Amino acid sequence: MNDSFQSSELQGVSRTRLTDQTAAALREYILSNNLPPGTRLPSEPKLAAALGVSRNVLRQAVASLEALGMLRVTQGSGTYVADLADTEVFQQIAAWMGTGILNEEDYLEVRAIWERGIYALVMDRARPADLDRLDKIAVAMVETDDPDEAVARHQEFHDALLQVTGNQFLVTTGTILHRFFWEFGYRDALVRKPPVARLLDGHRLIVRLLRSRDPGNIQEMIDLHLSPHLSADDTGHRG
Description:
This protein is mainly alpha-helical. It folds into 2 domains: 71 residues, Winged helix-like DNA-binding domain superfamily/Winged helix DNA-binding domain (Arc Repressor Mutant, subunit A); 138 residues, Four Helix Bundle (Hemerythrin (Met), subunit A) (Up-down Bundle), CATH 1.20.120. Strands 1-2 form a two-stranded antiparallel ribbon. It is globular, with a radius of gyration of 21 Å. The N and C termini lie far apart (75 Å).
């Protein structure tokens, strides 16, 4: 038996590639578990063992995700899921975008286009269990008396919507984009806000409309989120 082989048949995995794979695994762990900002990750030894890599490779992977703004490392405390709004990248973009006046019509038009696409995918791909989870989050959003908790559940609701699409690229970019919508829209004095009570109650109705699987209901879902600023005609094309 000939035990020899061509060098091209078997290629070693470079350290750089192993670090990238480890970073990708950590990123998937955070996204698939929908871990909110502030969540503390398992200890370094436990993570390294679970991933099957050395602690040095893990540190490099964590450092790369920290540079991207996904993780925050606190010396002596641990590694945490970062809040995008606290990252240097977000703050730099926020400063750049904040130099101009936010046009409410432009902002809401982009929101309507974005939400139409998300709702269409969720309506097509959601399993009954996915919709049950969304409804549970929507109920928690309404029942809490803590404004900060309501905001957290609102973020969780939209993160869960993105997860249901099954499109991981959309999950990543969508999480970032939704935070921008929140930072530049709901905190901008020039953009009128829906009444808080209706904004919260509307999410349960959105879930009921998703259960209908009727694409004709998507416009009503958009209106629930964006009106009283927009009418049905406003959320379509401008002509």
